[in-house]
Design goal:
With 410 residues, this protein is mostly helical. The protein has helices at 4-7, 12-22, 24-30, 36-42, 47-75, 78-97, 101-129, 132-146, 149-163, 167-187, 201-213, 216-245, 251-275, 281-305, 310-338, 343-365, 374-393. It starts with a helix and ends in a 17-residue tail after the last helix.
Length: 410
């Protein structure tokens, strides 16, 4: 019997294509976020309804990841991946042509589901063809390069708004979807041969999911990252209104600030990676949580009593986003380490919780309309506090902890 490595080799083209796939979510979202005020005006709708398109996208992406992995374990990787990319491309075209916010919301749901499906299969392909240190290196490359997309996305979105129309951003996502489809056809072979597939599917996933969710340490780190994700997307959903509608920034200036904040998060994650094994990972997480909590309290104070001055908002947003680089990657790594016997299930549940949280928080952050930052600031503060509770929950009563020689360390 041939191994998956004999069936499909790890090539530069395959890795580049998977990196390309990881850009789906940030590009489909971050290019669109700077246009929120324009979308609300053109489609004659409210800020909350525009933010609801984020909710549908993120919840659908969570479901796509949760379902796509088990289905590809049964059906193979390549065909489901191609189908997802074509569906995402078609949904992007509908978004570009949407005459109403209702049509936009439905199209974003399909776009998110297909995008999440494609992302989880892309990661599964890497796991199929790489092992050991090679797998760790490749996944680190995918994560590092994928971190560029949240920086480039808002800049592209702001540039598009300056030169053209917000609908062009969805046409661009559609073109990228076609490019991903072609890259998959050329560079991605079937990595899961029939003899390695299994019929367990979603039923096996449910069984493993119950085991994972019974692990207190895993659930604690899931709270750490899920609550941090909620704070992050309170910012994503509302920052355009805070900085543009309330403080008069232009779309391109907002996009530059958004990109700078994403860069802060990426640099914090890289610094944390360099400190792995030398500084306790839990201490790095706690540092991020304290910074995020401070930013949330400062933002809430400014929103309640000082009408959210621009300088305060810029500083708080940068501190918040930089803190995420310490909280989310490290919390995710420790969550995975807590359930080594079920890595796929742990990853799927982790992704599902993240995107459901993001989708739930987005419209709540906009409940006050586009001229107040109070709901957003309250959510950021609450998210940081709940994340700290999660870190406490994850502290198991065992007297021994992981050693510094392990990949993540505590």
């Amino acid at each position: 019997m041939k191994t998956p490595q004999a069936q499909a080799r790890l090539t530069a083209g395959l890795v580049a294509t998977v990196v390309f796939l990881t850009a789906i979510a940030p590009l489909a979202t971050d290019m669109y976020v700077p246009a929120f005020p324009q979308v609300a005006g053109e489609l004659s709708t409210t800020a909350t309804q525009v933010q609801l398109t984020l909710t549908t996208f993120f919840v659908a992406m969570a479901l796509g990841q949760l379902i796509g992995g088990p289905v590809s374990d049964q059906r193979g990787r390549r065909t489901p991946l191609l189908a997802a990319l074509l569906a995402m491309t078609a949904a992007s075209i509908v978004c570009a042509l949407a005459p109403t916010i209702a049509v936009m919301t439905i199209a974003r749901l399909v776009q998110g589901f297909a995008g999440g499906w494609a992302m989880v299969i892309g990661r599964a392909i890497i796991v199929d063809v790489a092992t050991g240190n090679q797998l760790v290196r490749v996944l680190n490359v995918v994560a590092a390069v994928g971190g560029i997309a949240p920086i480039v996305g808002p800049l592209l979105g702001g540039l598009i708004l300056q030169l053209s129309h917000w609908r062009v951003s969805f046409w661009l996502v559609a073109v990228l979807g076609l490019a991903m489809t072609l890259a998959t056809l050329v560079a991605v072979p079937e990595s899961l041969p029939p003899e390695r597939r299994h019929a367990g599917g979603l039923r096996s996933f449910r069984t493993a999911g119950r085991i994972v969710l019974a692990n207190r340490e895993y659930v604690g780190y899931l709270m750490v990252t899920g609550a941090a994700m909620g704070a992050l997307f309170a910012y994503v959903a509302t920052s355009a209104f805070v900085l543009q509608s309330m403080n008069g920034l232009s779309p391109i200036a907002y996009s530059i600030d958004f990109a700078a904040n994403a860069l802060g998060m990426t640099l914090a994650a890289l610094i944390a990676a360099r400190l792995a094994g030398r500084v306790s990972t839990r201490k790095l997480i706690l540092t991020g949580q304290l910074a995020a909590l401070t930013a949330g309290i400062a933002m809430l104070t400014g929103a309640l009593w000082f009408e959210t001055p621009l300088l305060l908002a810029l500083i708080c947003f940068f501190v918040l986003m930089t803190a995420q680089g310490l909280m989310i990657p490290n919390g995710g790594a420790l969550a995975s380490a807590a359930v080594p016997e079920h890595p796929g299930t742990g990853s799927a549940v982790h992704g599902f919780v993240h995107w459901v949280t993001a989708g739930t928080i987005a419209p709540i952050a906009g409940l006050g309309g586009e001229h107040t930052a109070v709901p957003m600031a309250a959510l950021i503060t609450t998210g940081a506090a709940v994340s700290m509770i999660g870190l406490r929950v994850s502290a198991t009563p065992k007297p021994t902890e992981r050693t510094a020689g392990q990949p993540t360390g505590q």
